[in-house]
Specification:
Shape: elongated
Strand order of the largest sheet: 6-8-9-10-7-11
Number of helices: 37
Helix content: 55-70%
Number of domains: 4
Largest sheet: 6 strands, parallel
Amino acid sequence: MWSSFDLERLFMGEKKDFFVSYTGNDEQWAKWIAGTLEKAGYSTIIQAWDFRAGENFVNNMHNALINSDRFIAVLSEEYLESLYCQAEWQAAFTKDPGSEKGLFIMAKIDNVKPEGLLAPIIYIDLHGTDEAEAEKRLLEGVSTEGRPRNRPGFPGTKRANFPGELPFNNLPLKNSCFTGRQGYLEKIKALFDSGKAVALSQVITGLGGIGKTQVALEYAFRHAYLYDCVWWVNAESNESIIRDYTEFTKKRGLLKDNFEPELVIDAAKTWMADINNKWLFIFDNVEQDDMLDDFLPPQQQGQQHLLITSRLTQFRQEFQLVAVDVFEPEEALEFLETHAKLPPNEHAENLAKELGYLPLALDQAAAYIKVCHKSYEEYLHLFREKRLQLLAKHYRDANAATVAATWDISMEKIQNEGAKQLLPIISFLASDNIQKSWFSNSAEVLPEPLRQCAGDEMLFDELIADLERYSLIRVDHKTINIHRLLQEVVRDRQDNPQELIEYAMTLLGYTQSPDFSSYEGREYSLDLIPHVLSTTQHALEKNIESETLGELCHYLGCAFYEFAEYPKSLWWSEKALNIFEKVLGPEHPVTVLACYNIAEVYNTQSDYTKALKLFKKVLCIRKKVLGPNHTDTATTYNNIALVYKRQGDYTKALKLYKKALSIRKKVLGPNHTDTATTYNNIANLYLDLGDYSKAMESYEKAISIREKAFGLEDSHTAISYNNIANLYLVLGDYPKAMEWCGKALSIVEEVLGPEQPLTATTYNSIASIYVHQGDYSQALEWFGKAFIVFLHKLGPEHPDTSTVLKNMKRAYDKSGNTQDFEEWLLEKLRE
């Protein structure tokens, strides 16, 4: 620690070799440069180490420039734009304008090109290098003398300009205009160093706009070099978290082919729990403090850090809350100067105050001032007029009123009518990850002139750039992002929100991907679901009832069914049915399909009474509308038969299966895959009835058709293999049974993964074979694997879960273990 005497001696007499000039954003670089020079024997003056709080900053800077032999500029984009840094380097430049003595040195850490007076000066290029090369370049041409200080870790990998300069990450673009917030950044770092998880929240009430996300992002960029991985997660919903976790497991190579949500979450949590992994996970916009319970490992250790942003003003105990407020007055002025490129004055002070020091409003105001070449005084006049008009609307939230005024001012300046149409439409979508391709793919259904712009890539790029120029949106490669507070304001200002919601719904209707069988289809759905949820919820709030809304609700029902979230699937499917019945009528094919999907959910949940009622309703309509021999009618016979079978009414089930088989053979042919499905169902029924010869005959017919149609590595083929294995088990031919189970298992684990009910069914079959062979240890292991999957996917009340639990208990009892079964099972579940 420097004493006041040391500082006086430093600035009033003792010469130093170098003065290191830098911006606040580049402090880590400046420390590294100074530390490297001093380790090599040089002496330096650097603000971070040699200026103390409460001292006269201008006087210190003046003495530092006088009492240093040479000047190093830490050259970045922010440095070149800073008025204070410009004054520093210009003062130093006069000592050696021709750069003949080497007194003026530039250390380039950013992808910038010096211009003007700086253009002819040779610089030290540290940008994009590793630490050894950077140190070598810095020390070339200088001698070694002096005393060392502690230097920080090399920050060269923290910058986000090009791939490879950060650790493994998915961070959004860096905010080049970030200023201030130093106290928050230091507090977060101190809390992490003490082993605390951190939740950023806003200390003021209202809709937000105070910059929590930007503080988290800046922290990530400044300290990324401390981690092996920095991962940004949109935490507005479970679906958005799963989407970002899926991307993480994919890019990290944790999963190969199967990206089922349960498997993705387990893989990510397992990786996070590894003590050797150093990571920072940022969860942005958490809506509820318990929504992360299923996504986090039990505890973090070492260099494993969680950073959360949220509107919540209270958070659960294990998170240390850092309440983020609006800018301090001096921070607001610094922000305006950096962003608007104008030196602050009394009008800037008044503007910042009237904007409530709110970062979002200041951002929009500064962008307008810069683009339109306005003064602070001129913008302040515009704002006062606009805010006076808005106060008559009785905005409940002061932040919303402020942002509404700045938004109005910016929108009045935008001449592109397509841009004016785009912003209200995307205000009804989720705030992040709006794909630009959605607009080009659905241009024909958009209003003019947005339609024309969306259909022309160049025109659409110009439209997007117009909105981004005024800080109304952020564009990140292929996506558009908009602040949630601005969305609230834009929605509130619309005279005809129903029309805009219809456009948003139609847009999403064109983007739906019903293919859930592939990874690409599931990944696409995870991107889409948050936007469909947002738009449909707005539509339901406005009491809109249209076919498009019904289709989106239907899509959500199907998507949640595929992701095994059955309560959500049921809720949205019922919404779809209600809408279709009103809009299309009860006998329309789309309405019937919605009814059918609800019956499927009930059937999966073992609510057979409700499932049977709805399937019979579907059958009645299909027979009436499509005829008794239509393939859809056959499918309904098949579904009803399955319900009867599960209820134990084999006579009714067999009768309906045979009806379905007769229709399919007649309409589709004897070798169609749907015909094979019916053969397989009939075989299962004969197996339950004990007619093994007929069961074998039907299984073999199903296998023959499926192997030809699907190939030897398809889940449909695996079902037949598993079924015939069970038949061999009943017949007592254990080697044959294990052979067919092995074939099935190799397919389902490769195609579906270990977390699917069909895979668990194969586990159960293998366990049953071991039971019959008397190998209870192996049986319990396979029963346990099946039970975990059924428990997680189907729930504790499902018949498959109950059956495997009973099978496991029988095997445990026969194993001779004296421990209570429930105690043993609980121990296994905790493992």
